[in-house]
Each structure stands twice: as C-alpha cells, then as structure tokens.
Design brief:
Distance between the termini: 121 Å
Helix content: 55-70%
Number of helices: 35
Number of strands: 2
Largest sheet: 2 strands, antiparallel
Strand content: under 5%
Structural class: mainly alpha
Strand order of the largest sheet: 1-2
Length: 628
C-alpha cells in the first residue's frame, strides 16, 4: 500500500504545505494552499491559506480571506493582519470578541500602544504576562509604559513567575493544544490538527528521503555544543562597497569619502580595518549550568532561568541602574555565556555614564553573539563617548554589511560620522534608521542631538518631542530638551526637563550638574548648591562639578570656600584658563588686587580666544591698583 492510499487528499495537501512553510518556501505553499481551498472551501483550508499569506507578509489577502471564518485561530490571525496593516480599530473590534488567551491580550496591548493609549496597553501587557509568564516581552513593555514605576510592579512580575513553576501548563504538553493560539485553547476543529500517526508517517518519509539531515539533527542533540570565544573585532570584515544593493538610498564611495571626512578614509581603507583572527574553542554544556532560584541546584525549570534574567533587568527598568548592577554581576556568575546579560550590564553602565566599564560589557556581549543587531546602537554610542573612531568605524561597517535593513546599523554609521564632525551625513543616516523603524526612540534622540549641534533648534525640539511621545520616560530626550532650552536661555524650561530626567534616573550625575548650572543662571542659588552637591556625591572625580560649585559659592559670597576649591582645581587642571579667571574674581572680591592680576595674567596666557576681554579686565585691575 502506498503512502497516498494511507492519507486523504486533503491530508496530503496539508502535510506538504506545512513542509513548505517549515522550509520558508512561501510561494509554493501559497500555490498549493490556493488549490486546496478551491477544491475544498472550508474554514480549515481558508485558515491554512491565510497562514501562508501571513508568512509571506500578504496581510491584506489574509485579512479579507478570513472574513466570516469563526475559528478562534482565524480570528486571531485576522486581527494580527489588521494590526500589521494599521487597521487598529478593526483589530481591536475582532480581538474584543476573542477569548482572552495570553497572545490575544498581548496583541491588544500592541494595538493600544500604537493608538497611544499607554494605560490600556500596559494593562493588557500585564494580563498577557500573568496568563503566560514566558511572555518576557509583555513584561518588558508593561515596565516601559509605566509613567511612574513602583516597587510593587517589580514584585508583581517576580511573584507571578515564581508561581508559574507550580501551575503553568505548557502549550504542547497536551497534543490537543497543538493547533491552539493560546494556552489551553480547545476551540479548533480536529481536522486542522495532525495526529500522532500521521506525524509518524511523515517523519518516516523524511527519514527515507534525507537520512543525512536526520542523523545530523540527532548528533546536535547528543553532543555538547562548542562555544567559540573570540574578540569582538576579530570576526568583523572590512567595509564592503554598497554595489548590488536594491535600496535606493544606498551611499556611494563618493558619499563615504565626503569632503575631507576621516570616516570615508577609514571605511574604504581595508588595510587599516583588517584584524587578525584568533579563535579559542572552549567546551560548554548548557545542561551543566547551575540555575538560581530553586532549592535543587540541578533544576532545569524555564522559570528559574527567566527569574535569573528578570530580577536584574526589571530592577534596572523599574528601580535604578545602581541597584541592578550587583544583581547583574550575580546572574553573570551563573550564566557567563549569556550575551543578553552582558548587553544589559553595558546598558546599566551607560545609564550611569561609566563608558569604560560599558565598553567592556558590550565587547563581551558581541564576542558571544557577533551577529546580533540589537544593542549595536548602544555599543556605537559608547565608542562615540570614548572618542574611539577606528573601532567605531569598524563596528559600523560590519553592522551595515551584516544587517543592511536594521535601524541599529544605520545608527552606528551615524555615530561614526557624528564623531568625525560630519553632522549632515549623520543626519542622513539617522533618517534612514527612522525610515526603517519610525518608532525607534533612540534614533529620534540622536537626530535631535545632531540638529542641536548645528543650532537647528526647532528641528531638534521636534525630534526630542517625538521621542518623548513614543517613550514618556526617555531620559535622552529630556537631556536634549534641557540643553536646547539652556542654549536658548529659557532656564525655567531647562530646569523642568532636567528635573524630569532626574525623576527617571536619580543616579545620573550629569543631570544634576546641568540642573545646578540652570539654577545658577536663574539665580536660584540654594537649589543650585543642592543639585551640585548631589552631582559631586555621584561623581566625586569630576572636576567640572567642583568648578560649578566654586562658581555657585562665589555668587553666594562664600569666597573663602570658593578659593579653597579653586586651589584644588589648579593642582588637578593647571592649564585650565577658566579656573584662573574664577580665582581672579575671588581675589578681586577679597580685595587682593595683586593676586587677582596675577591669576588674570595666567588666564590670558592660556586662552587666546578671549584675549580682548581678558585685556580689558586686566586694565581695570591695573587702574584699581594705581588708585589704591
């Protein structure tokens, strides 16, 4: 008896269509599914064809095909297609009639988020996570959308994950749930499910047709995986020209070279970018990793593993980066080869403006997973802060080569040109990133920074406000708006945005520094002194904080204290003209004209730009000395 005699015609079609979908041959799957639907126009065959359409991103076809189909999975798929087509009202209406399965709640959260209904979106993300604690992204979105996170929000996520160890029902633990869209869904018809007997038959066919594939898969399961530890840049290739690209916005070599641009030379000079490749193979077995959170050290619960990731990450999002750091270190002792944890450690250090430590974490992350796009934007910004142009150039060129359609790659490229003082090219690449992902708040913020560098205040303001609309707790947008208003001498507005940034991240010293400068310019001296004291506490080695404090003390007529601070600054920064100028003002206020004149002379020798102004001040002091 042949295999075709064993299976019905519809089952034969379904099996080969599913096989084509599994191998990403969407065109052939669609062709066969259309034939099946024409021969047997049932709800099940329509659903199968719609799945093929969705896999091929033909959302309009799937949406219209599923009208009138009452299967639960069909409703979900139709709502998903509507969401992808930006028919948000239709998606909401369809989902409101569905059972509140975890993925239904998650999709509703996405719909409300896109409609700018943050409170509703956050509510449904939390509902989705409570029903299925493996929906890590739902918990992440819930935390990010909270206007003012509370410690109880953190506890809610952790406690629910701990409870799931006892009562969670895995979707495929019961074969009845195989075709369901959510946990415990039993609304699908039996015809759409593949029985164990049929699966066995299909598997036997595959074994007979391609035994080498099957044996290879089994060897992967039996053998321990090899982990290759390598330096980040050892695997990055030199920049390759953009020929054979299909996108109309591709840059040419002339664009890359620019007019005297250092970036163009670096990108096109393969010799400078070439790195020696060194790979060290280290044996590793995931099964042997100790996962915390369980009394049994050999526990392999997915929820123990998730808790290891969740505790530090949601501490960073809901509480503070400072509290998250020790938790991340603890997690990395257990999961040393988890690239995502290293990435979060880098982000944590970045939020605390510790860019040297952040670079180390980013390097560790990309050494473990050099082909990931997410995180490239943070790593490239870290290298920008450290002024490492060659490394940044190499990272950006490899990113564009590997992830041409990822916004993170173009953000990295924009950081390259920004560091080379080519703001126009940076703006072009950031617009490219936004074209690929209009909701990318990081790209909008960096675009605002570039406009601000060119003194295009209105365009910068527009970019920052767009970022704040997308993410109301975006500290970078608050920073940009604060600097922008400071430049425009709107100090009350600047104080508002810097204070808002401090409310989101109270461990960031530069926010307090800028806040104190704004208070000083607005003559709110006690508030200025309080803010700079906090900044000094967070960054005791920052000399600029001491300088600002001395300025505030001068305005408060506490000259002896200001003079003491200036003396320390002269020892640590002997070639800083502004310090001598401030000391001159202090000595003048104390009546020591000779010392004031001496320090003013030092300042004029170090700063040639303001020579005329300093000469006038020296003349005034000279005349005052003659008068005395």
């Amino acid at each position: 008896m042949s295999v075709c005699d064993t299976l019905s015609l519809q089952d034969q079609f379904q099996n080969v269509i599913l096989d084509h979908l599994a191998h990403l041959n969407h065109a052939n799957a669609i062709f066969l599914a259309e034939r099946l639907r024409e021969q047997s126009p049932t709800d099940e065959t329509k659903l199968l064809l719609a799945e093929c359409y969705v896999a091929d991103h033909q959302f309009a076809s799937a949406f219209h095909l599923l009208k009138g189909v009452e299967l639960a999975k069909a409703k979900y798929l139709q709502a998903y297609s509507a969401f992808k087509m930006d028919k948000l009202a239709d998606a909401e209406a369809i989902l409101s009639k569905c059972d509140r399965a975890p993925h239904v709640n998650f999709l509703l959260g996405q719909v409300y988020e896109k409609q700018k209904k943050s409170a509703l979106a956050s509510e449904f993300y939390l509902k989705a996570f409570k029903k299925d604690p493996t929906l890590f992204v739902a918990a992440e979105k819930f935390a990010l959308l909270l206007p003012k996170p509370k410690p109880s929000d953190f506890d809610t996520l952790i406690v629910r994950t701990q409870e799931a160890k006892e009562n969670f029902v895995f979707p495929f633990a019961n074969s009845k749930n195989f075709a369901g869209i959510g946990q415990g869904s039993e609304s699908e018809t039996p015809n759409m499910k593949i029985s164990a007997k049929k699966l066995s038959l299909v598997n036997s066919l595959k074994k007979s047709r391609s035994p080498e594939l099957n044996s290879g898969f089994e060897s992967v399961i039996k053998n321990e995986p090899d982990f290759i530890k390598q330096d980040l840049f050892s695997s990055l290739k030199p920049f390759i020209s953009f020929q054979n690209r299909s996108v109309a916005t591709k840059p040419s070599e002339k664009d890359l070279e620019g007019s005297g641009s250092k970036i163009g030379t670096l990108l096109l000079n393969k010799g400078k970018l070439a790195q020696s490749s060194s790979k060290t193979q280290v044996k590793s077995s995931f099964a042997k990793q100790t996962i915390p959170g369980s009394p049994n050290p050999n526990s392999k619960s997915i929820f123990d593993y998730l808790l290891t990731l969740m505790r530090p990450y949601f501490t960073m999002l809901i509480k503070s980066p400072n509290e998250a750091l020790p938790l991340l270190e603890e997690a990395l002792e257990l999961l040393q080869k988890d690239s995502w944890l290293h990435l979060q450690m880098g982000r944590c250090h970045t939020e605390l403006y510790n860019h040297v430590a952040a670079e180390k974490s980013y390097r560790n992350s990309f050494a473990l997973d050099p082909y990931r796009a997410r995180g490239l934007e943070h790593f490239s910004s870290c290298l920008w802060h450290l002024k490492k142009l060659p490394e940044l150039t190499q990272l950006a060129s490899a990113a564009v080569e590997r992830h041409y359609f990822a916004p993170e790659s173009w953000i990295a490229m924009a950081n390259c040109y920004s560091l080379a003082q080519d703001n126009d090219s940076a703006i072009t690449f950031l617009n490219r990133a936004i074209q690929l992902d209009r909701s990318n708040t990081y790209a909008h913020c960096l675009l605002g920074h570039e406009f601000l560098a060119k003194d295009l205040f209105e365009k910068a303001k527009e970019s920052y406000l767009t970022a704040l609309k997308l993410d109301p707790r975006n500290t970078r947008a608050c920073w940009g708006l604060g600097i922008l208003n400071s430049k425009m001498e709107k100090f009350d507005h600047a104080i508002h945005y810097f204070s808002q940034g401090v409310s989101f991240n109270d461990q960031c010293a530069p926010f307090y520094t800028q806040l104190s400068v704004c208070y000083l310019n607005d003559l709110k001296l006690p508030s200025a002194l309080s803010a700079i004291t906090k900044a000094e506490h967070l960054a005791p080695q920052d000399q600029y904080n001491k300088f600002v404090k001395a300025q505030i003390l001068v305005q408060m007529r506490r000259h002896e204290e200001a003079l003491s601070i200036c003396g320390d600054l002269v020892k640590s920064s002997p070639k800083e003209a502004s310090v001598y100028l401030l000391m001159s003002q202090v000595y003048k206020a104390l009546g020591n004209v000779e010392a004031a004149y001496k320090n003013l002379t030092f300042a004029s020798g170090l700063d040639k730009k303001d020579a005329n102004k300093l000469n006038r001040m020296m003349s005034e002091l000279h005349n005052k000395a003659l008068g005395n």
